[in-house]
Amino acid sequence: MEKLKTATQVVFYVVIPAVILYYRFRKKYKTLFAIGMALTSVFVGFLVSQSFRESYQDVFVRLMNEDRFDEARVELQKMLQRDPAELNDINLHRMINPVMYERMKKDLTRYYAAEAKKVAQSIDMPALQDCQVLHRRRVQLHNMNHSIRLCDMAEALGAPPPAWREDMLTRIESEKELLSRLEEKCR
Length: 187
Fold this sequence. Notes:
The chain has about 190 residues and is mostly helical.
């Protein structure tokens, strides 16, 4: 894959612009046309060389197979933060050590579930409904959404949904309505 990427870079960054410059100096092309063609070649070369990039799942499997578990754990966390559904695209048949992958999933599941619970317990809504607490309510709504996002990541790894999740979702919806009314009131 790396050789093919290098070959396309050489072709689009060196060979094609060199041919364009050769014909420009032989007075076959006008200067601006030659510059435009060379820049287009470089741009297309960039796009083509980026298409040979490894997917995040392939990088994760490669790191797991090379016994670089700390780096693989970081890649797994990045995948979860981008989109928890990306875990479904991991090819477990190419992985040499699936037991370590399962252990890593369990560790991250416990971590994300504990963090979600900690964030959910730290939420305390002010009883007042005036303009002075508007910013604090926005921060608390952000924390609620963050706890749900952490729950989603833990569930993608195989954790059961926590008991407080449905209650938190209804609290988020009611808080959004309340926040919109407060914003209208405070304008």
